[in-house]
Automatic annotation (TrEMBL):
<dbReference type="InterPro" id="IPR036291">
    <property type="entry name" value="NAD(P)-bd_dom_sf"/>
</dbReference>
<feature type="domain" description="Enoyl reductase (ER)">
    <location>
        <begin position="8"/>
        <end position="313"/>
    </location>
</feature>
<dbReference type="GO" id="GO:0004022">
    <property type="term" value="F:alcohol dehydrogenase (NAD+) activity"/>
</dbReference>
<protein>
    <recommendedName>
        <fullName>alcohol dehydrogenase</fullName>
        <ecNumber>1.1.1.1</ecNumber>
    </recommendedName>
</protein>
<dbReference type="InterPro" id="IPR002328">
    <property type="entry name" value="ADH_Zn_CS"/>
</dbReference>
<keyword id="KW-0560">Oxidoreductase</keyword>
<dbReference type="GO" id="GO:0008270">
    <property type="term" value="F:zinc ion binding"/>
</dbReference>
<dbReference type="Pfam" id="PF08240">
    <property type="entry name" value="ADH_N"/>
</dbReference>
<dbReference type="InterPro" id="IPR011032">
    <property type="entry name" value="GroES-like_sf"/>
</dbReference>
<dbReference type="InterPro" id="IPR013154">
    <property type="entry name" value="ADH-like_N"/>
</dbReference>
<dbReference type="InterPro" id="IPR020843">
    <property type="entry name" value="ER"/>
</dbReference>
<keyword id="KW-0862">Zinc</keyword>
<dbReference type="Pfam" id="PF00107">
    <property type="entry name" value="ADH_zinc_N"/>
</dbReference>
<comment type="similarity">
    <text>Belongs to the zinc-containing alcohol dehydrogenase family.</text>
</comment>
<dbReference type="InterPro" id="IPR013149">
    <property type="entry name" value="ADH-like_C"/>
</dbReference>
<keyword id="KW-0479">Metal-binding</keyword>
Length: 316
């Protein structure tokens, strides 16, 4: 079968012929129906700092996956051939597809059954894939790490695939959500979601006292700005990895007792929570779909900021 594989930083993905996977002990083989494209995929292609996370090279990337169980290995219980599932990329003891083992930019993928999350019939595979990382990560950052609750004032930095889902999760929790997004082309989306206001920078919201700010962009200055803008005793949750380092004002961090937390991924329960919101119709992320053959071009568009919402390759 053909798979889009990463070989090295600053090199394009290569379409290689690879063997079809076989389900080992505790594993299933999934027929991939949809796979999400993420800014971390762009980061992997451009930043050597990601290389240490890879189990091998070349490796088939793609860590946001949904599909149908095609084969069940020895020792697997709870799943059968034909089941619709998503793959939690941060399941305990499994590792992430595309990093610890071959991921979903291929027609089939072998994965430990412990990472599987049942996909409700009401949720299609494209949304199912988007939920496994973008949905899970955004939900976990806002609700689990940020502790956002009814009545809170929340800042969301970056309205990409993660930010839009995080904003919706905050709104559903009963918070007043403000969005900072440098790309004015997506401002109409912010207003459609029901946020209170949208500006270029989180520092543009003068007079707004933020209880929690979640930075889904992570371009260095965004982290620093969040620390300056959150209220004394407030919380900044860092999710985005647009840059792998930032310079912050530690005086502000210390004297205002700001809590700065890193948030990575989430849990199977977070994925299930997103699926529940999607199945009920309360969470409807904006998604751009492409074909399997368009994955490299899609990553280029993602890098250039030409994608509104989440980008998902549909194999159906």
């Amino acid at each position: 079968m053909k798979a889009w594989q990463f070989t090295n930083t600053h090199e394009p993905l290569v379409l290689n012929e690879v063997p079809e996977p076989v389900a080992g002990e505790g594993e299933v083989v999934l027929e991939i129906k949809a796979a999400g494209l993420c800014h971390s995929d762009v980061g992997l292609l451009e930043d050597e700092g990601w290389l240490s996370l890879l189990a091998k090279r070349p490796i088939t990337i793609g860590h946001e996956n949904a599909g149908v169980v095609a084969e069940v290995g020895p020792g697997v219980t709870g799943f059968k051939v034909g089941d619709r599932v998503g793959v939690c990329p941060t399941a305990d003891g499994v590792g992430a597809p595309g990093y610890a083992f071959d991921g979903g930019f291929a027609p089939k993928m072998a994965v430990d059954a412990r990472a599987l999350v049942p996909l409700p019939d009401e949720v299609d595979f494209v949304n199912g894939a988007a939920a496994t990382d973008a949905g899970m990560t955004s939900y976990h950052a806002i609700i689990t790490e940020g502790g956002v609750k009814e009545g809170d004032t929340v800042g969301v930095i970056g309205l990409g695939g993660l930010g839009q889902l995080g904003a919706v999760a905050g709104i559903l929790a009963g918070a007043d959500v403000y969005v900072a997004e440098i790309n004015e082309k997506v401002w109409p989306l912010a207003r459609q979601l029901g946020v209170k206001d949208v500006r270029t920078s989180i520092k543009d919201f003068e007079g707004v006292e933020f209880d929690v700010i979640v930075d889904y962009a992570g371009f260095g200055v965004t982290t620093a700005d969040a620390i300056e803008m959150v209220r004394p005793g407030g919380t900044v949750v860092q999710v985005g990895m647009g840059r792998l380092e930032a310079t912050i004002n530690t005086r502000t961090l210390i004297t205002r007792s700001v809590t700065l937390k890193g948030s990575v991924g989430g849990t199977k329960e977070d994925v299930a929570g997103v699926y529940e919101n999607m199945a009920s119709g309360r969470m409807k992320p904006q998604i751009t779909t492409i074909s399997f053959d368009e994955i490299p071009a899609g990553l280029e568009k993602l890098e250039k900021g030409e994608i509104v919402g989440r980008l998902v390759a549909s194999y159906e």
